[in-house]
Design brief:
The complex is a heterodimer of chains A (about 300) and B (about 300). Chain A is of the alpha/beta class. Chain A has helices at about 5-20, 35-40, 55-65, 80-90, 95-100, 125, 140-150, 190-205, 225-230, 245-260, 285-295; strands at about 25, 45-50, 70-75, 105-110, 135, 155-160, 180-185, 210-215, 215, 235-240, 265-270. In chain A, helix 8 (about 190-205) links the parallel strand 7 and strand 8. With about 300 residues, chain B is of the alpha/beta class. Chain B contains twelve helices and eight strands. The longest helix of chain B is centred in the first third of the chain and has 26 residues, at about 20-45. The chains are: A alpha/beta (about 300), B alpha/beta (about 300). The interface of A and B includes residues 66, 98 and 100 of A.
């Protein structure tokens, strides 16, 4: 177990950026109760935006255009629907169009089980558009790496956070086995459920490789992804966003294309996430992962 | 409200030095001849990409270019006039319109996404969502602390994020000069059909000084001087778009032709010979720029 939580890591990265890099942090109600789950430091350089989603994102993009490398906080990923246009139409295009980059670090927080407008995971949408880096760090070390990549490059970055990860102090290692029956690739919050699912499956005699995916775009097809699949000859990509046109299917396609082995996808159903059970359309949990693997192997 | 003389002080041109008036005219002239070259190139199918012409509206940009210096520039989709009057090289714009690697964005962006960041000019490109440049300009002013001019149209003024960004600039007292190029048209739908309110009143209600004025360039300078020491501020300029929203067609005879009016005023002020020389020199320069032989040469795409 590490020393720092993900939330503490984010807060410290933000503090360093604001105090040492002439950085700027913008968002709505970021200094209100809880300071966005205690991820925002109480230092100079924080701009409280009014409740103006599109304008707010445009203002943040403008700050990026003059080199401030803003951290732009979106408290619920569902709000990316409104905040998206300046990011998609401007920040992501400017480097290819004009040779001028617009580096902005978009912290988009996801949640689970709090209804139709606060439980969304929208990183797949941003994978669709050229120009973004998209990642979903769930550990302190992964978050530090995401920040390092942002500062080393000049691309706008969508950081798909999840509230389920904020108190996490542990790093997550891949788990591979010589005679695995299936390789489970996991993205975002299902990463916290996949270990228990693998244990349940093991009791049924099914051995699972577990491979964690942080970087969704660019998705670099590397040995760490391919080797377990070459051995298990069957894969499943599990994500917290919608399955249709989503990260799980897109990455499953890439893996199949590169190996010739079948890789299935598991994400949210094509249904609105509602407030109460059984209509919540929840992120794949231990049981759903278990059931899906059992079905695939039958 | 809307007229060629609205809020234009009487005999305003006389209050300005001849050198400034002729500089302003020279920029308008250079711009007009450039766009005549564009039109010719479109007719001859040398330019095959969409063009957003500013002819008819250029007096405002020419006036601003003589008055505000070292501003960050956030222009709209119709920005040939801003680019050229603020000093962007004509050949780089020509090449951009032709889709050449020597263009302002290596031929990748085109007429409605003009940007230029050389020779002391900081003009950021527009990406086609009208009014998107308003929050960006506000964010750039916030991030840099630099004076910033943000130019947008009367259609963009109706975008919700434009109000919100102007309000943010007022709240934080950011150094932004907002300029609305009010040609009364969204494609072809006039302002009175689209809304019952005035963007100038909105700007005032947000707490910034704001004026409506016709596109008389001397009047634009006059009001800009009054406002630029009290930013953020807003100017709504009544102009007449000469050509289609996109393309080289003409919908109807414009209500007025400011270029002609400026020429007439300069003649009244005794500058007939000077404007003849400017016209002739500019015409020759642009003929060379748009030289048919040159354009027919194999071009590096």
């Amino acid at each position: 177990m590490g020393q720092r939580t993900v939330a503490e890591t984010i807060r410290e990265i933000s503090r360093r950026h604001l105090e040492e890099n002439n950085g700027i942090l913008l968002g709505q109600a970021v200094t209100a109760v809880g300071w966005v789950n205690n991820t925002v430091p109480n230092v100079e350089g924080i701009i409280e935006l009014p409740m103006t989603e599109v304008a707010g994102a445009g203002i943040a993009v403008g700050a990026a255009m003059v080199g401030r490398r803003p951290i732009f906080v979106i408290r619920f990923q569902d709000f990316l629907i409104l905040n998206g246009s300046p990011l998609i139409n401007y920040a992501a295009k400017s480097k290819e169009l004009h040779g001028r980059s617009t580096p902005i670090f978009v912290r988009a927080l996801a949640s689970e089980g709090i209804g139709p407008v606060h439980s969304g995971v929208l990183h797949s949408i941003f994978m669709h558009f050229p120009g973004f880096r998209v990642c979903s760090p769930m550990t302190p070390g992964e978050y530090e790496q995401a920040w390092r990549v942002f500062m080393e490059h000049d691309d706008p970055m969508i950081v798909s956070e999840h509230r389920d990860s904020l108190q996490n102090t542990d790093e997550m290692e891949d788990a591979t086995h010589e005679k695995a029956d299936i390789t489970l690739y996991t993205i975002s919050s299902p990463r916290f459920a996949v270990g228990r699912a693998a244990e349940m499956l093991h009791k049924e005699g099914i051995i699972c490789n577990i491979v964690h995916i942080v970087w969704l775009k660019p998705f670099e097809v590397m040995g760490r992804y391919l080797e377990p699949l070459s051995q298990s000859k069957l894969g499943l990509v599990i994500d917290a966003s919608f399955e249709i046109c989503g990260a799980s299917r897109s990455i499953a396609y890439e893996l199949t294309n590169n190996t010739g082995y079948p890789v299935k996808a598991l994400g949210l159903l094509d249904k609105t996430k509602c407030l109460c059970p059984p209509y919540q359309n929840k992120v794949p949990d231990t049981q759903v992962i278990y059931d899906t693997v059992m079905n695939i192997l039958q | 409200m809307r007229s060629p003389t609205f809020n234009v002080p009487p005999n305003i041109a006389k209050q300005f030095p001849s050198e400034l008036s002729l500089t302003m005219f020279e920029r308008m002239c250079m711009f007009r001849y450039f766009e005549l070259g564009v039109i010719d190139a479109v007719i001859k199918k040398e330019i095959t990409y969409p063009v957003y012409l500013s002819s008819g509206q250029e007096a405002v940009a020419a006036a601003l270019s003589t008055e505000i210096r070292d501003y960050l520039i956030f222009a709209q989709h119709r920005a040939h006039d801003v680019y050229l009057t603020f000093g962007g090289p004509p050949e780089r714009l020509r090449d951009e319109l032709l889709g050449l690697s020597s263009g302002t964005s290596q031929g990748k962006a085109g007429s409605n996404c003009l940007q230029y960041h050389e020779n002391g000019i900081s003009m950021f490109g527009h990406h086609g969502l009208i009014g998107e440049n308003v929050p960006q300009a506000v964010g750039a002013a916030l991030g840099s602390g630099k004076n910033t001019v943000c130019i947008f149209g009367d259609g963009a003024a109706e975008e919700d994020y434009v109000f919100a960004a102007m309000g943010f600039a007022a709240t934080h007292k950011l150094p932004v000069l907002f300029v609305c190029i009010d040609n009364n048209l969204s494609i072809l739908t006039t302002v009175d059909v689209r809304r019952s309110w005035s963007i100038t009143d909105v700007a005032r209600s947000l707490g910034m000084p704001a004026v409506d004025v016709a596109d008389d360039p001397w009047a634009v300078i006059y009001h800009t001087r009054a406002l630029s020491n009290n930013l953020p501020a807003f100017i709504n300029c009544y102009v007449c778009r000469g050509y289609w929203h996109v393309g080289i067609g003409i919908d109807a005879t414009p209500e007025w032709d400011r270029y002609k009016k400026v020429e007439e005023e300069l003649i009244r002020l005794g500058h007939e010979e000077a404007i003849r020389v400017i016209n002739e020199k500019t015409r020759r320069f642009m003929e060379e720029l748009w030289d048919r032989e040159l354009l027919l040469k194999p071009l590096e795409k």
